[in-house]
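Ligand-bound model needed. (5S)-5-amino-3-OXO-hexanoic acid.
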Amino acid sequence: MEKLIITAAICGAEVTKEHNPATPYTIEEIGREALSAYNAGASIIHLHVREDDGTATQDAARYGLAIAKIKQLCPDVIIQPSTGGAVGMTDEERMQPLTHKPEMATLTPGTVNFGGDDIFINSETTAKNFATRMNELGVKPEIEIFDKGMVDTAMRLNKQGFFKSPMHFNFVMGINGGIAATTRDFAYLLDSLPAGSTFTVAGIGRNEFPMATLAIVSGGHVRVGFEDNVYLSKGILAKSNGQLVEKVVRIAKELGREIANPAEARKILGLG
Ligand code: KMH
Ligand code: ZN
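Prediction:
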């Protein structure tokens, strides 16, 4: 099996300091959380940014500051900005971080009810526009899969030339409105991927470590972080994103899977 790539989703757009006081808002805090995850073994930082008061933003200048801070602290880490942003943002607003030409960025090929009554809107035209912009700028998409139909859409857009092979997917499992975090549904998604794809699994809330374990034993990769889950174990808040990454590293080591450093992650994902 390939070495394990760990992505740390350190911030997200929805989690707040009320959920976990270590949630980063300021550039300093984002740097601190990225460094804690990197030191623990993360090779990718999935990045959202906030105003200092915690408001989610996709502002290009704010991303520029966060990217510079992370590069200063963790020079070789792969930075993967969000193009999902927060529910309700326009497509142009969401695409702003691409101006920094990151190595990767997220791209969601479908619409989903997001945690209840919010709707995370991604029409097919949105997905095609995001993919076209990423292709022009040399940004590899991580295709966010919130439900099985999104894999089918990705394969269709791959045939049409919008998504290049080999594709890299992230199964986001366990949000209210999306696919459940179950072994059956994980197997269903895995079985649906085209040959040669790579995939990461992000289990939401209490599903984070069980789904990480399934990914580890199945040859996939793992995403953890405050965006998805703020608890280290039942009732115990993580003190940092690094603690969540450390837990994945412990599980992987017990299961005999080695951890990829950023250079190894780049090779596995065909970056650069
Ligand atoms: N905040 C969600 C609405 C992504 O980063 O691309 C979308 C999201 C996905 O977080
Ligand atoms: Zn995100």
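The two ends are 22 Å apart (CA to CA).
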